[in-house]
Each structure stands twice: as structure tokens, then as C-alpha cells.
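Students often ask why inverse folding is considered easier than folding. One informal answer: many sequences map to the same fold, so there is more than one right answer. In these notes we will look at a single instance of the problem. The structure comes first.
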């Protein structure tokens, strides 16, 4: 039993180390030797648990999907019982995702691997929990007549997908120096990722939300985390 427990701890450490390496350098630049060094095990010990780098990537992506699924489900449940609409849930879910990507290397590694291995993994969005949830909520928003006439649920889901991916990618950029392109006063690349997401929602919600909906179509800094009792997350 003790031997099995040690083996399982070693396996989990290898998996976590692989996620950190994939997150930092990507799939192509990661090597079994590099991952073994990160995990402080021999390459032989690593291949005992994961025979190939592809096996490691598959395991990391599976773990990342599980973590992401829990995050999006919890975000939606946080609005239950307080009148949360599909739009509320979309806003809250995206903020929950960005917080996850800021703090969880496994989730970030899964996102990076999904992009880099896309050519060998047809239909990458089909097994992505957050993309499925965004698509579902966009369809619910149409059913609730919460979107402007003519706004298509598929286009909304795609737009939000681009936003999430863009903010996640921007996390990986080094801080940009203040220059003519990015004036210091703009703070564009210096705000926390969740604050940048809030600003993006302020821009895109007026073009999405039905005019008969909430008067102020942008989440506040506090409502992005959970809706207030009896108020919409998109209300002022």
C-alpha cells in the first residue's frame, strides 16, 4: 500500500510538473528530460508512468478539462436562486475562467496544448467545457429574448470565445513599456486580466443586450464575482 501511495504521489508530481513546463514553453519545446528535471525524478521514472510526451499532454489536457468544468459549473450555480439570467451567467463564467487561468497552471497548460495540438485534434471546441458552456448560455440568452434582434447565438459564443482566448494569451505577454503605441496613462497592458475583461464587457454588452434589458449593460467590479441579491449582474 505504501509503495502504491508513493507511486501515485510521483505520478501526480510528474503530471503537475509537465503542466508547468507545457505552460511555460509549449508542447514542441517541452522534453521528457526537461519535465523529469522539473519533477525531480529520473527520465526512467517518468516513462514508467507516462511512456511518451503525447501521453503526458493527453493527461494534462484531461486534468485541465476537469478543473475547468468544475469552475464553469460553480460559476453558474452561484447565480441560482438570485434571478441570474443567461447574460449574468455569461459574465460571471468568463470572469471565473480568467481567475482560473491567472492562478492555475494546469488550466493554462490545457489551453495552450489545445491551441498547439489543434491540427492533430479535430474539433477542439467539442471537448472544451468552457466553450460548451458559453455556447449553451448564448442559446439560453436567445431563448430569454435577452439579445438584440438579429444577434445570433453562434456568433455570440464565438465572440466570447475570442475574448477569453485573447485575455488568456495576453497574460503570457511581458509587461509592455510605456511608449507612443501604449501610452502610460492608458494602463492597457498593466491592469489585472480580470479588470481588462470587465472593460471588454463594458464595450461589447451594449451591442448584444436587448434594449429592453438592464439599463446599464456592464458588470461592476464586484458583480463580476457574484450577483447581488435581487439584482442582475449586468445591472448598475
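Output (designed amino acids):
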Amino acid at each position: 500500500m505504501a509503495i502504491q501511495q508513493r507511486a501515485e504521489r510521483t505520478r501526480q508530481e510528474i503530471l503537475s510538473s509537465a503542466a508547468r513546463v507545457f505552460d511555460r514553453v509549449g508542447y514542441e519545446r517541452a522534453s521528457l528530460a526537461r519535465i523529469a528535471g522539473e519533477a525531480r525524478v529520473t527520465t526512467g521514472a517518468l516513462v514508467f508512468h507516462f511512456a511518451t510526451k503525447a501521453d503526458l499532454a493527453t493527461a494534462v489536457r484531461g486534468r485541465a478539462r476537469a478543473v475547468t468544468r468544475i469552475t464553469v459549473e460553480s460559476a453558474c450555480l452561484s447565480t441560482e436562486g438570485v434571478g441570474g439570467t443567461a447574460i449574468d451567467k455569461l459574465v460571471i463564467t468568463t470572469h471565473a475562467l480568467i481567475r482560473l487561468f491567472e492562478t492555475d497552471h494546469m488550466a493554462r497548460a490545457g489551453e495552450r496544448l489545445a491551441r498547439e495540438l489543434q491540427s492533430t485534434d479535430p474539433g477542439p471546441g467539442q471537448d472544451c467545457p468552457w466553450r460548451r458552456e458559453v455556447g449553451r448560455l448564448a442559446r439560453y440568452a436567445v431563448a430569454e429574448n435577452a439579445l438584440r434582434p438579429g444577434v445570433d447565438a453562434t456568433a455570440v459564443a464565438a465572440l466570447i470565445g475570442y475574448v477569453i482566448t485573447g485575455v488568456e494569451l495576453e497574460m503570457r505577454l511581458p509587461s509592455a513599456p510605456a511608449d507612443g503605441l501604449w501610452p502610460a496613462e492608458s494602463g492597457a497592458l498593466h491592469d489585472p486580466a480580470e479588470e481588462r475583461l470587465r472593460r471588454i464587457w463594458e464595450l461589447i454588452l451594449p451591442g448584444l443586450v436587448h434594449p429592453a434589458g438592464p439599463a446599464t449593460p456592464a458588470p461592476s467590479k464586484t458583480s463580476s464575482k457574484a450577483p447581488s441579491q435581487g439584482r442582475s449582474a449586468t445591472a448598475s
